[in-house]
Amino acid sequence: MRVALVDGGGTNIGSVSYALERLGATSRLTADPADILAADRVILPGVGAAGAGMRRLRELGLVDVLGQVQAPLLGVCLGMQLLFERSAEDGGVATLGLVPGEVVGIPASAQVRVPHMGWNSLTGIVDDPLLTGIEEGERAYFVHSYAAPTGPHTLASTDHGGSWSAVVRSGLRWGAQFHPERSSSLGARLLRNFLVEVDR
Amino acid sequence: MTLARRILPCLDVREGRVVKGTRFRDHRDMGDIVELAQRYAASGADELVFYDITASPEGRGVDVGWVERVARAIDIPFCVAGGIRSVETARAVLHAGADKVSVNTPATQRPELVGELAEAFGVQCVVVGVDSLRDEDGHWRIRQFTGNPDATRALEVTTLDWVRRVVDLGAGEVVLNCMGSDGVREGYDLEQLAAVREVCPVPLVASGGAGATQHFIDVFAEADVDGALAATVFHDGSIPIPSLKQSLAAAGIEVRA
Lengths: 200, 257
Description:
The structure holds two protein chains of two kinds. By secondary structure, chain A is α/β, with parallel strands linked by helices. Helix content of chain A is 26%, strand content 28%.
């Protein structure tokens, strides 16, 4: 299986490829459109800000390419946020528009610290091949300041001063707001499901 | 269910090995870094902090070889502290697979560093470590060069002002090391942590003083910190993480099982 890891300049690319390695899968770090379009699975990682992330994808000529991907696509953390239509980060950024919805800032309060950082539970889990074997209430590692409110595309949510999308899906595009590569057995399960359970 | 409070074992690293010294001296080899990291990850640690004790006092950067080995081996997040003085060194450490970098003395020398790191990598990668001690006038103030007892210096800025400032600059998390309670194992400095909590809107991690399970319960219940860091009680096996988590859960504190 050819797994393309889109080199969008995020710093968690190494961690994602190591997590795939631990599952016995090899991935190819690439910004080459032909590689991405020929892959059986495409993962869009990313840590950082939406503005810089989109700028980098535009410079690499990957904005349209990601829209053309026919294979299952998984966005991770910022990679998931970029799948939506718009992000409020950096004063407002038009993003890839592959999943309907918008990303907004998590409102901080005395009890709600931002960034949302740490292990939070997944709730409202919808039956989906990506979430096979993942139980209601299991915890994943989150670290982000912006988030997508829950909506019709939400497959699992998490609570931090409001209910946020933890996993989303639109067609063959999935996104995980948490870091599966750093979410212990739950994360490994999700990545394995993405490789094995999710079919074209 | 909500966000879990975190338990963070801290490992001192010297030339790619985990070491333990008594008050920064006489370091004893504790074992292979990857082996220990995997053991902690398997025991339920929520996050690991590696403090490169060779890097900072000697003016060297971090050797990213061990960072990459750890990143390959474990599936929980980890932070690297010590020796990070620039966006370039931080980038090398993050690209090697660390999830966060922590800056302490270099931030006191050049506070703009915090903003530069946040701008380059996002606030979620940027931890500011603060070494703090109460002075005779009753105010907590920060210390720099704490890695070397002979070089440690007190600064004018109060701890509360410093925490406000680094958060404004872009710290995504603050680790407050209360030097007065550090190494004494008589509990975290609840008064100081609670005072810093008041001015710290980002996640706050308590460090210094853990000696018993009750100390962890107290620091979460009374100082409302997001995480508790400790070294000795985990390394010497006196507080196994699984039983600590059980005690915390029994006390009504949200933890990851």
